[in-house]
Amino acid sequence: MNATTTRGALLAALACVLVGGSFTANSVLGHYPYAGGQFLRYGLACLLLLPLVGRGGTAPLRCLTSRQWVRLAALAAVGMVGFNLSVIAAERSAEPAVPGVFVGCAPVVVAVVMPLVEGRRPQRLVLCGASLVAVGAFTVQGWGRADGAGIAFSLSALAGEVGFAVLAVPVLRPLGPRLLSAVVCAMAAAESAAVGLVVDGTAWLRTPDRTEAAALLWQAAVVTVVGFVCWYMGMQRIGAERATLFSGLIPVAAACTAPLVGTGSYGAVQAAGSGLVGAGVALGSGALRRGAGRSATAVQDDPRDQRRIVVHRDVPATGQPHQPGPGDDLLRPHPLAADQEPVLGTPRHGDRHGGDVVRELDGGARLEGLGERRGVGQGERLGDDRLG
């Protein structure tokens, strides 16, 4: 893996470990109104995220279409509020391991759904790695008692976990990880308040005690602010398919922290499952493959990306034809009319577009590279270091 991919993998892993460790905080909120707790968590997280966005950071919101706003609302409703509601409802008639096993299948679903949405075939190594992660998550958690309602709500939780990744892809690039996290937290807080008023009436919110307040603060400041930003930064660099592989670390982190509060044990079975999760993540993320080169390692993983990027080795002077060199076919040959293409002007500093992929392979003269405009799927893999 190159530096960008490695950084994205570490960010996604950190986010999932934080979520897995948060189960300890959830255990002390059992008697606090669900909707009120979610309102406080996401509302506080939104307030903490606003300074990270900075002045003028909300400007991209004015450029969003109505369809993108609907997608953001669906992301908050399905991937955040709906997911947590489904898990709580499932645990009323099923043991906690049951929704955990279903949610552990999210990497497999995302590995199939995302390529179909983007009009390409699923990547075999990612799919194989996702399968190993799902088996490892099942091994760590085991299976428990469940009825039809428990299984149905567990499937709903799986849909929420998948939606949290898939629905975010088209809005991640225009908003960036910080602004996206702030917006969906604000929407999730409003949706939680609406659910609380409908379900619990005036009892939907109360003043938490010290223990509950500490747990809510941990969930808001660490799990939501740090976890969400790291998750979307990781997804921006390695894509939704590979980022979701790391969700297998959630049950592993939960199993590792359970003995600390006396709610579980970590034995040989959990260790074996953790090994399967680690192997699946390594296989699907590409950590076991040797880098193909320092120029475009992340780009070469997706054939669709190769059709959208031109790597320039030499840039001639103004008005001179471009003479194809022996290494210009690093990714694929650049189509030239009669083996040459006139260049209208030499690139200058400032010609680079914020969404362009730039890579200058000529180590001689210091020239700015030119890149063709990329799509959202490509941006997820290569990332945008301005946001990192």
Labels describing this entry:
single chain; 388 residues; mainly alpha; two-stranded antiparallel sheet; 15 helices; 2 strands; 62% helix; disordered C terminus; Integral membrane protein
Order of helical and strand elements: HHHHHHHHHHHHHHEEH
* Beta-strand segment tally: 2
Helix content estimate: 55-70%
Report the span from N to C terminus.
18 Å
Number of distinct helices: 15
Any idea what the radius of gyration is?
Answer: 23 Å
Class of secondary structure makeup = mainly alpha
Strand arrangement within the widest β-sheet reads 1-2
Q: Would you identify the regions where 5 or more consecutive residues have pLDDT less than 50?
A: 291-334, 336-342, 349-388
Measured by DSSP, the beta-strand proportion falls in under 5%
The largest pleated sheet is described as: 2 strands, antiparallel
How many domains, in number, for the residues? 1
* Mean pLDDT level: 75
CA-based shape: globular
Describe this entry's structure for a reader.
Helices cover 62% and strands 1% of the residues. The protein is built from 15 helices and 2 strands. The chain is mostly helical. The longest helix is centred in the middle third of the chain and has 36 residues, at 210-245. Helix 4 (66-93) runs antiparallel to helix 8 (148-166) and helix 9 packs antiparallel against helix 10 (210-245). The chain has one domain (3-285). Strands 1-2 form a two-stranded antiparallel ribbon. Keywords: Cell membrane, Membrane, Transmembrane, Transmembrane helix.
Present the secondary structure layout:
Elements lengths: L2 H19 L1 H5 L6 H20 L12 H28 L3 H7 L2 H12 L6 H18 L6 H19 L2 H31 L10 H36 L3 H13 L6 H18 L11 H4 L2 H4 L14 E2 L18 E2 L33 H7 L6
Helix pairs in contact: 1-10, 1-11, 3-9, 3-10, 4-8, 4-9, 5-7, 5-8, 6-7, 6-8, 6-10, 7-10, 7-12, 9-10, 9-15, 10-12, 10-15
